[in-house]
Amino acid sequence: MIRAFKFLLRPTKRQEQALAEMLADHRSLYNGALQERRDAYRHTSKTSIRYGDQSAQLKEIRAFDPERQGRWSFSSQQATLRRLDKAFQAFFRRVKAGQAPGYPRFKGVGHFDTVAFPRDGDGCRWDSTPHDRQTRVRLQDVGHVRVHRHRPVQGRVKTVSVKREGTRWYVVLSCDEVPVEPLPPTGTIVGIDLGVTHFLTTSDGEHVANPRFLRAMTDELAEAQRHLATFPKRTRRRTKRHRAAARRVAKLHGRIRRQHADFHHKTARALITGHDVIAHERLNTAGMTKSPAPKADPEQPGSFLPNGAAAKAGLNRSILDAGWAQFLGILANKAESAGRLVVPVDARNTSRTCPECGYVAKENRVTQAKFECVRCGFAANADHVGATNVLNRAGLALCTEA
Asked: Could you tell me the strand order of the sheet in which 114-117 lies?
C-alpha cells in the first residue's frame, strides 16, 4: 500500500533563505523550458521538444550557471522538467478530447511551491530514528533541516518533496510497502448523506454539524483582501507593506485549509472506527459547483436574461466550504488502511425516494429539512431519508457482487 506522510519543517533563517532560492531556481528552469518549447513550435516549423531533449541539456545548463542551477540536485531538476512534460501531455489530451485546452503557463512568484526529489538518497536523505520526534531531512545545498515528525513513518521512503504553504515549509514523503493495520470488526454498516446544512447525516439518524470555516472567517478574509487590493499594480511585490499584506491573505487561507483537513480527518476516523462498511453518494463536485451558462436575450442583442447565477454562487460557496471531495478522499484512504469497505452509490433521487414504499417524486421533498411521501404519507428528516436510501442501495450492490 502506498501512503504519503506530511510533516512540518522547522528551518533556520539561513536554511529558509536557501529553500526559497531552491524554489526560485527550479521555477526559472521550468519557465525557461516552457519558453524553449514555445519558441521551437513557433519558429522552427512547429517542432516539438520533449522531455528527453531538455533533460539532455541539463549538464550544459548546470555548467553554464553553476551558482543558480549547478548547486541543486540533478534528479530534482529532472523532476521539474517532467512536471512540465506532464502539463503538455495533459494539454494535448484535452485538445484531442475537444475540451478547453489550457495551454501550460509560466509560473510566477508564489505559483511554484514544490520541489520533488524522485529518490531518497539522491539530493535528499530522510534521517529518522524510531524514538526521536524531532528528526531531520538532508537537502543538497540546504543542510539538515529539522522536521516535526508527529507520527511514525511506515513503509519504505520512495520520493521526497519540499513544499511551501504560505510562510510554512513541509516535507512530503511518499512511501510504499506500508502495512495495513485492520481494526477489529464491528458488524455494522452505515450510509451517509452529505449536505450543507449538516455536513453529513448517517442512516442511524445522527447529524454532524457543518463547521463552515470559510464563512466564519469571511469578514476577516475580505478585509485582508481589500487591503491587498489597495496597492497599485506598479508597486506590487516591490514594498514590504505589499508583501506583508499578501502574507496575511495567505496565512488566513492556510488556517482555513488546515481547519478543513483536521475536521475531515477526525470525522472520517470516527466513521471508520465505528463501522465495517460506509456507503456514500457518488458525487461530481466539479459539476455541482459549475456556474450556470449565460442566457442571451433574443429581444435585446447584447443583453442577457436572469439565469440564477447569484443564487448558484452562494450554493457553490457552501459546497466548496464543506469540502466533500477532500473528505471522501480521506475517508477512502483511511478505510483502505484500516481494512474497511467504502461503497459509493448512485446519487440520483436519494432525497426524493420514499424508503417505505419506494415512490419517487420531487414533491416528496417538502423543504430542505422535511420529507413527506405524497403516496404513503411517510414523513421524516430529509437528510436522514437520503442516508437511508444510500444504505439500501449499498446493500443491494453488495448482494449483487456476492
From this structure: 114-117, 156-165, 168-176, 3-10, 143-148, 134-139, 124-127
The residue with cell 405524497 is 374
Give dist(CA 251, CA 166) in Å, integer. 6
pLDDT tens per residue across span 46-99: 677 899 999 999 999 999 999 999 999 999 999 999 999 999 999 999 999 999
**3-class SS shares of the chain: helix, strand, coil, % to 5:** 45, 20, 35
Does residue 6 have a pLDDT over 80? Answer: yes
The terminus-to-terminus CA distance of the chain in angstroms comes to 25
Q: What is the pTM of this model?
A: 0.87
Quickly list DSSP for 335-387.
Answer: HHHHT-EEEEE--TTTTTB-TTT--B-GGGB-SSSEEE-TTT--EEEHHHHHH
Helical segments of 289-323, H only: 309-322
What does the alpha-carbon distance between residue 139 and residue 158 come to, in Å, rounded to a whole number? 15
Residue 4 corresponds to which cell in the numbers above? 504519503
C-alpha cell at 75: 534528479
Of 284, 279, 283, residue with least CA distance to 398: 279
Give 9-24 pLDDT, tens digit per residue. 999 999 999 999 999 9
In the chain, where the domains are located: 3-176, 189-212+270-401
